[in-house]
Each structure stands twice: as structure tokens, then as C-alpha cells.
Amino acid sequence: PIPTELSKLRYASKYACQRASPLICLNQALAVELDIIKRSRALEGEERSALSYSRAISAIKAYPRRITSIRQVEELSHVGTIANSERFKALSLFSSIYGIGPSTARRLYALGLRTVDDLEVYFGVEPEEEESQLVELEHHERFGRASESGLGETWIKIALGLRNDFELMIPRAEVEEMGRVVMDELNIVEHGCVSTIVGGYRRGKPQSNDVDIVFTHPDPTKSKGLCKRFVHHLHKKGMVTHVMHLSGFHGHNPLRTTHWDSLEKALTVFILPPSSPFYKGTRRRMDLIFAQPEVYWCAVIGWSGSIMFQRDIRQWAKDKKGMKFDSSGITRRYDSKPFYPKTEKEVFDLFGLEWVDPVWRNA
Ligand code: TTP
Ligand code: MN
Ligand code: MN
Ligand code: MN
Q1: Might you report a single GO cellular component term (predicted)?
Q2: Which helix (H) or strand (E) holds 245?
Q3: 67 Cβ partners below 8 Å, 6+ apart?
Q4: Domain ranges within the chain, ordered by starting residue
């Protein structure tokens, strides 16, 4: 049931950020069916169409009554046909490898590749080496040209090699343990840091594909360059084996459903230390995001997602408030005046939005 404080939120609002969207909705089966079409459109590079489906799914997620004729919807749509096609299955499989996006998936399919074995041969995945050296990659997205194709061949090769670990979902308790361990280490490197575990975990997902954590330090001078220093520290402690540094770019294509901000971040491969009660030696994906203290809550909101929810906060801020919002901050459009909300609630207040708890942001 939708909590009473949210019942006044209009489920029919055009903006996802005004709607209450649970993780599992009343019409989940329908949402799941439509998601197949959405994924198919995205995999085919039909971004506009995929986005329309995303919007429809998102609207259904907030719809507070059960739609009774799902049968009919199933009959009408050719969802089954899509889901069973060789192309859809192969493109889905390819893009499930971290670092492979739709356009790379299509390119690989066009080359005649169909299975993960094919990918292994194509990318030349080698048996695992001794991981003593930190595998460090820099990614600089060309301005204005969103790298829809993903993160590059080296990363794909790494992700292929680690896919047996990466496909294991991370239970909440382990997410929390990873958060604790990382926070203890960060406070060795720079005392007084604060953090929030964001991503799907914060929206209540029982298990996650990766762990996303936003950090800051109340002293702005202390958080500068901290991301790299910290990753090197974690590597020395044997907890991080690979890292992709991303920083300082904006590659926002309005047609894309994803949006990278200009915060300093490290996409890492992480292993809990053997001393942890949760230690299984499983490699986990972990995203570390460093924000300056003034924009910490913007980063927390942006990285809490869902992608559709934060997309519509951006849209709302632009349409209704003449402001620009993303994970790296809020500015007034006409004079670029920045705003520095001191809490997450203040961000909602600033935009004149009702508070929506993170577990109701699964738009
Ligand atoms: P993800 O870690 O990709 O997704 P998730 O945490 O929602 O779910 P899971 O990890 O279990 O698959 O992204 C975390 C949040 O970061 C996402 O909800 C919104 C934000 N985000 C962006 O703002 N832009 C992006 O390009 C991506 C990938 C994520
Ligand atoms: Mn590059
Ligand atoms: Mn995540
Ligand atoms: Mn992530």
C-alpha cells in the first residue's frame, strides 16, 4: 500500500518525481512484459522508442490499482516473439557483460558472434593472471559524443573474465558490509569523511548488481583528489584489483536514458578482505563517487536513481523552476547561480516537490 503521506502524490503526473513508484508494483507482470519491448528497442539503438516504453512502464509502476485484463495485453503484443528471437537473446546476453552497450552488442552480432564463448575467442580472454598490479584504465569521453558503446575493449575483456563472479547478485547484508569496510579504510586515508550507499540498494532492492557509494568530506580542500588516493590505498590493501577512473566530463545526450555527471568517480572491482565474516573471495563491482560537500546531496539523489526518477527531477527543475539539476549540482539557468542544499529534503523543497522516500523512487 502506498503510504498516506504519499497518497496525495498524483500517480498520473507527467513527472516520475511526483509519483510513488514501488520496487514491485501492482501490475508487475505487465511492467515486465513491456520491459522486454523496451530492452529490444534499446538494443536496436531505437533510443526514442525505448524511452517511450520506459515512460509507459514507469507510469504503470505508480498506478495504484490492478489492471485486470493483462491477458489481453499479452495477446496483443508480440512480446513472446521478440523475447525468443535469436537476435534479441544474443544482444541481451552481450549487453549483460559489463562494459558492452547496445551498439557494441549489435556490432558483435553483425560479426556473426552469438555466444559468450564466441566473445571469449573474439576478445582473447586469457586465463586469470596473478593480480598484484592494479589494472588502471582512464576513460575520457569525447565531449558531446556519449559513449553508448560502453567502456572500451580492455574493460570488456576484464568483465568477460570475471563474469562468473559479476553475475552473482549482492545481498543487502553484504552491501552493508562492503560499505562499512570501505568507510573504515577511507577514514584511514582522510579522517572525517561521510558517505551514503546509493543505487538500487537505497531503493530497497533485496540484491544488487553492484555497490554504489557517494562520499564527501566537510572540508572541501580534503576531498580534492581523494578518489585516486583512496583507490590506490584499497589496492595496497588487496581490496581493489581493477579501476576505471571517470571524471570531469558531461556526455549528456537527451535521447539517452543514462546520464553521466562531472563528479570524480572510480568504477572498481572489489573483494572483501579475508578477515570479513562475509568473505567468499567473490569479486564485486563497486562504484565510488566523490562529491564536494556543497553538492553532496545532489550526488546522493542522482546516484540513488532510478534513472527515470532522476531524469524527471531534471525535467521538472527545468520546466517548473528554470533550474538545472544533476548529480553534480543545481544551478539557475539564466545566471548559472549555484544552489547548495544542506539536506536531501532541501533539494525536494527547493524544487517545490513533495518528499519521496528512496524506496518509492523505483520509477
Ligand atoms: P547502477 O548501479 O547502474 O544501477 P542500480 O544501482 O540502480 O541497480 P543495480 O546496480 O542493482 O543494477 O546505477 C546507480 C544509479 O546511478 C542509478 O540508479 C542512477 C545513477 N546513474 C546515472 O545517473 N547515470 C548513469 O549513467 C548510470 C549508469 C547510473
Ligand atoms: Mn578512452
Ligand atoms: Mn548499482
Ligand atoms: Mn553502479
Answers
A1: nucleus
A2: strand 240-246
A3: 26, 27, 30, 60, 73
A4: 1-84, 163-360
Residue 14 predicted with pLDDT over 70: yes
Ligand 1: list residues with CB < 6 Å. Answer: 199-200, 205, 208-210, 212, 258-260, 302-303, 305-307, 310, 327
Whose alpha carbon is nearest atom 8 of ligand 1?
200
Write down the CATH number for the domain with range 163-360.
3.30.460.10
Model confidence band, residue 140 (pLDDT cutoffs 50, 70, 90): low
Which CATH architecture does the domain made up of 1-84 adopt? Answer: Orthogonal Bundle (1.10)
DSSP H helices, 63-97, are: 70-76, 79-84, 86-95
Is the predicted pLDDT of residue 227 greater than 90, yes or no? yes
Q: Which 3 state secondary structure label does DSSP give 10?
A: coil
- Domain 1-84 and domain 163-360 have a common topology: no
CA 334 – ligand 1 centroid, Å: 30
- Give the model's pLDDT for residue 154: 84
Average per-residue pLDDT for the chain: 88
Q: Which of 203, 212, 244 to mutate to test the pocket of ligand 1 (most atoms within 8 A of CB)?
A: 212
Look up the ipTM and state it: 0.94
The grid cell for 92 is 541481451
Q: Give tens-digit pLDDT for 42-101.
A: 999 999 899 989 998 998 898 888 887 766 565 545 567 788 889 999 999 999 999 899
